[in-house]
């Protein structure tokens, strides 16, 4: 079974996504989650992109797992700190966003 969306040509194996999720201290947000719309938004509303997955990292290990997952599944990757970048670099269509806003230490 694969996860697919109308806004991406990327196909992500659902079992692989569940495996990633099971190893995260933080959260894995997918388009099917109720808070996906708020999780994908950045402050620059013109950067209206729809990532396939969003990892809300809780620690450095979550970041490593997310980067590894993106590399292994050939997904474009965006890193978001606070989401204030005016150019919209903190989000991406069809790829994986690592949201590090909750990492405070």
Neighbour order of strands in the largest sheet: 3-4-6-5
Measure the end-to-end span: 37 Å
Shape: globular
- Going by CATH, the homologous superfamily would be Uridine Diphospho-n-acetylenolpyruvylglucosamine Reductase, domain 2
- Total count of strands: 6
Structure, described:
The protein has 105 residues and is α/β, with parallel strands linked by helices. It has a single domain, classed as 2-Layer Sandwich (Uridine Diphospho-n-acetylenolpyruvylglucosamine Reductase, domain 2). Helix content is 26%, strand content 18%. It has three helices and six strands. The strands form two sheets. Strands 3-4-6-5 form a four-stranded mixed beta sheet. A two-stranded antiparallel ribbon has the order 1-2. The chain is globular, with a radius of gyration of 13 Å.
Question: Characteristics of this structure?
Answer:
105 residues; alpha/beta; Uridine Diphospho-n-acetylenolpyruvylglucosamine Reductase, domain 2; four-stranded mixed sheet; two-stranded antiparallel sheet; 3 helices; 18% strand
